[in-house]
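Internal tracking record. Fields below are filled automatically when a chain is submitted to the structure queue. Please do not edit lines marked as system-generated. If the sequence contains nonstandard residues, flag them in the REMARKS field before resubmitting.
Queue: standard
Priority: normal
Entity type: single polypeptide chain
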Amino acid sequence: MRVVSLGTGDPEVAVVVCIHGDELCGKRALDRFLDADPTVEAPVKFVVANERALDAGSRFVDEDLNRAFPGDPDADTHEGRLAAELLEELAGLRVLDLHSTHSSPEPFALYQRATPGTFHVLARAGVDRAVDISHVPGGLVGYCDGAAVECGLKGSEAAVDAAERILRGFLAGNGVIDAPASLRDPEVFAVTERVEGAGYEFLGENFAAVPPGQPFARRGDEELTRPDCFYPVLMSTDGYDDIVGFAARRVGRLSDLDPDSGR
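SYSTEM-GENERATED OUTPUT FOLLOWS
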């Protein structure tokens, strides 16, 4: 783990990149920002999380770091130990965690804690959609106030550009840099369950409603349908080995929700 702190005093916000070592858009965006020798108006902390996986060009070393939290300093795995170390480094901070995905070219946010701190991050993350993914345990944002932003398609230059825009807008929105903030009121969805299955071709579009009985994935002659209307989230043909993605319901706008409701 590499930590870079800018500014004087104790920071209130942090930006995390490379929870997954093969998702480079956040690190490349951070490198661009730091290479520009920025002037900061308030302190901030940047964390390159899984350096060992980054050096190996792999998603993780022993286990998925974003399923290892809260971790344990004495864990048998690299990511188990790193998870505990990372939470200690981020304690008390509002966190923006940058990722990339196979599922959507348009950036969107994931969160797990419905707290004022998390809603503060979501409103400044520069995205039009946010997903309550508290249904899935073990993620970083389940243990701190903050959001994970999927900046775009993995390996694309567009994701790097989006990550830099999101990073700068978040810093501006928190008074770290003197630049226009990107305040949004994202549409919010809540994951209801995993959609199991391997080897399926995803037929739908993420965040677009799938009517009852309409096929949304296919494997050979087999089609997946559901008896209820739902919204696909993080669904793709190539994103996961064991699931198609997640089914979600639409909740409303962020401004409609109670930021003190907990998880």
